[in-house]
Amino acid sequence: MVKEGYYFGVPPLALGGVSLLLHWYVAAAVLVLFAAFIFSFFRDPDRTIPTEPGAVVSPGDGRVVVVTDEENAGRPGKRVSIFLAVWNVHVNRSPAAGTITKMEYRPGKFLAAMREQASVENEQNVFTLSTEAGEMVFKQIAGLIARRVVSWKKPGEKVARGERIGLVRFGSRVDVWVPKEAEILVNLGENVKGGSSVLARWPAKAAAAKLNGIDTAERETNLTATGKRS
Predict the structure, then answer these.
(1) Count of CB atoms situated within 10 Å of the CB of 226
(2) Which pTM value belongs to this model?
(3) Measured distance CA(28)–CA(16) in Å, rounded
(4) Taking a C-beta distance cutoff of 8 angstroms, is the pair 202, 69 a contact?
(5) Strand order in the sheet with 91-93
(6) Domain boundaries, the chain
(7) What pLDDT, on a 0 to 100 scale, did the predictor assign at position 206?
(8) Average pLDDT, rounded, for the chain
(9) 172 is catalytic
(10) Which fold has domain 55-203?
């Protein structure tokens, strides 16, 4: 369990104990059950992280609610959105190994996390991650009940695939954006687990092949322009 669980769970548990001593049995039961829910919400189970090269893992537990083509900063790509219900684990993990080159906090609304507009309009932390295959983006997004996105990382830090990077309190959403070269492996409605479920395959060789293709095209253009092509 993460430390936030103690901050939120111990007070109702203590009040439940006091209520029990005062023979307020109903209040004691409600408070103890509420504390148990909070401790469960902030649980942090270990996960088996895939070692397959190019695997992009889910940043959170939940259900896939969106798989769509989407541009990011003018680059064509694909976005996978995952809805985290209150009973899911809410510790978020890095979808790939790399360096966090940018992290931007965006204040916003608290629409229901299942709504499409939540990806743009809700409060969120946006991470830009530089990996061996290229640059990807993932988000922690607050929901209708979740009112706080928490990051444990800073720009410039290196992270491993599946490493814990933060949490969103009490119901939320996570988004992952990858370039079009990545192969999406999940479908709408599929349940995934943070750090262990593979969302996409995006090997470094795909990025290298793309760069080689660009280099070849540039060489062809230069040879043609200089008249040195045989």
Answers:
(1) 8
(2) 0.78
(3) 4
(4) no
(5) 91-93, 164-168, 149-151
(6) 4-41, 55-203
(7) 55
(8) 83
(9) yes
(10) Glucose Permease (Domain IIA) (2.70.70)
